[in-house]
Amino acid sequence: MSPVLQEDDEKDENIPKMLCQMDNHLACVNCVRWSNSGMYLASGGDDKLIMVWKRATYIGPSTVFGSSGKLANVEQWRCVSILRSHSGDVMDVAWSPHDAWLASCSVDNTVVIWNAVKFPEILATLRGHSGLVKGLTWDPVGKYIASQADDRSLKVWRTLDWQLETSITKPFDECGGTTHVLRLSWSPDGHYLVSAHAMNNSGPTAQIIEREGWKTNMDFVGHRKAVTVVKFNPKIFKKKQKNGSSTKPSCPYCCCAVGSKDRSLSVWLTCLKRPLVVIHELFDKSIMDISWTLNGLGILVCSMDGSVAFLDFSQDELGDPLSEEEKSRIHQSTYGKSLAIMTEAQLSTAVIENPEMLKYQRRQQQQQLDQKGATATARETASASSVTGVVNGESLEDIRKNLLKKQVETRTADGRRRITPLCIAQLDTGYSFIHEALCDLVWKGLPFSFHQLASS
Description:
globular; nucleus; repeat; WD40_repeat_dom_sf; WD40/YVTN_repeat-like_dom_sf; nucleosome binding
C-alpha cells in the first residue's frame, strides 16, 4: 500500500505496487474478500467457483503469465482450495467473525455456507430466494447472516440452525430494474443492517434495518440512482476529545460508506443526520465494491470502469476508533457471549445457561471425540506403509483414479483421440515437482504412481 499512500514511494522503482497476479479463475472475478485473520483470500467468479488463496513462503519470484517476463510476482499466492457447489455465477463471498465459516451466494438463487476449518465441507445451503442472490453480510457477533437478491427481498438467516429468521420486502416494493451487485452491510456494533437498492417516495435509498424487531423506519437518502454497495467501517468510533473540553464519555457511533450507480460515494456517521462527505462523479461508471482499511481511516472503492480510488480520512474527521477490547465489551454487554466468537477453550470453561448453547457444546465435544478416534485409526494405517501421499484427506492414487474417470475423451474426424485437459489445483504439499509431474502425466493419459514420482 505504500506506493498508493506515499508519492515518493510511487516514484521509487524498487518499491513494487503489484505484489501478485493470480490467473486461475476461468471467467470474470466478481468478489474478493480477506479472511479476518488476513491469512486467506477468497474469490468468487463467473466460472461458478470459489477459490481460497494462501501466501506460499517457500517459492521464489515468478513472472505473470502472458507478460513476456516483464511483470514479476513479488509474493506467491497459491490456491489451497477450490469450492464447487454453485450452478451459476458466484456474486459475493463473506467470512464469518473469527473465520469459522465462509458464505457464498450466486445467480442460482442460493447461499452456501462452507466450513472454513475443513474445506470443502458444506454446512448448509440456504434456499428461499426466488431471484439472483447478489450480496451477503454477517452479523458481527455471528448470530445471523443476511442476503439480498433480485427478488426484491432481504433475508436474515439464523446461524444456530441455518433457518430463516425474517424476510424484509417493503422497502424494495417500488424497485424497478436491477443492479449488478446488491452488497449490504451490518454495523460493527450489530445494531443496524443496511441494504442496497431500496426506494422511498420514488427516490433511491439505502434502507436501515434495526436489529431490534427488524424495523425499517430510517434510510440513507440523496443518491440519484440505485445504491449498489454499502460498507460499514470495521471500527466503532467516539467523538474526539478537544483540548480543554469536558471529559464526559460520548456515545459511540459507526461510520458507513454508500456507493451508487450514479458514480458517487457518500460517507455517513450514525451520530449525524446528514452525510459527512459526498464525492460526486468519482468514476465513469457504477461503483462495484468498497473496502475499509483495518485502522478504519482509509477506504478503497472500485468501479465498473476498471479503476480503484483510495480515500484517506483523519481522526479529526471520523473520531477516535475504539480498541478491539472496547468493541468486544460492547458486544458482550449487548448480546452476551457470542457463539461464533467463542474459541474452543472459552467454550469448555463458559457457564452456559442457554439450552441451545449447551447442545452446541455437547455436539462439539462429540465431534472432537470422533476426530480423535479417526486420527488414531489414520495413524495405524499410516504406519503400515512407509510412503503415502495424502492431499486434503485423499491419497494421490485416489485423486489419480478420480481424475481419469472425469477426463473427457473424444475422437476427431480422422480417428485421433483427443483428451480435454483438466484444471488441477496446485497440491499444497510443498512438492511442486509432484504437481508438475501429475499434470504432465494426466495430460498424456499415462499411468503413474506416487512411488514412481517420489523416486524420480
